[in-house]
Amino acid sequence: MQTHYDYLVTGGTGLIGSTFIKSLPAGSTVLVLTRQKHPKRLDKVTANLKLISNLNDISDDTLIDHVINLAGEPIVDRPWTESRKQILRSSRIGVTEQLADLSARLAKPFKTLVSGSAIGYYGSDNGTQCSETSPRGSDFAASLCSGWEQAATTIRSERRILLRISIVLSGDGGMLAKLYPSFILGAGSVIGDGKQTMSWIHISDLVELIHQAINDQSMEGAFNAVAPINTTNQEFSRVLAQNLRRPLLLKMPTIVTKWIFGQRSDLL
Known about the structure:
The protein is built from 7 helices and 14 strands. It has helices at 15-22, 82-105, 140-152, 175-184, 203-215, 233-243, 254-261; strands at 4-10, 29-33, 48-52, 63-69, 110-118, 157-165, 167-170, 173-174, 189-191, 197-198, 200-202, 221-225, 231-232, 250-252. The longest helix is centred in the middle third of the chain and has 24 residues, at 82-105.
């Protein structure tokens, strides 16, 4: 007897994946690729979940409608050593290549593939406004995103949507969770001169965009998952400090940022 799933989600225990799964109607059947046996982020989910640790656990006669590919180790949490870069590639490109292998052995292609990428595709040295047709950048993040997207194009699917995701704002994790401790202590700082542009998207809007990609048959190809209005690091830091009722007195000079974060400072 064939087994049918409405969704397969990689990275389903991360911020975006878990929020998407929680938004699904009760009774939805979901395969979640994860190494966690009891992921706390998926507590109180109303969908019917099956957790798997390897895509090879999926039998050849399984039917899967929609794939949401969000797998990937955090990119700024640790220094970009050569071994770390390999982990970042493997967790994104490697998992996506495994999805391609899965799609090749299943009887039917997926109806929809929504595959994650990032606005790092355009590179950190691009000072102009970018659209989906802008060329890719030349730094490591751009190379990583490009390889990620290229791997997604080999997956058998009736439709393919690539979401180039910007900074995701959420009260449940992501960048705000990392900034909160320093800002609440009054030690929040502007990075560099603060004039660098920040593209962002709220988690609710991003989840809604994923739903739209699944339901809107006209959507295909790459889409920038960003709010319509950008901000600067200085303005973002000012508003964050204001909302937390804390002062914003510090600046982290560019040279200090590069010393602390190395290549990762390009993203910052």
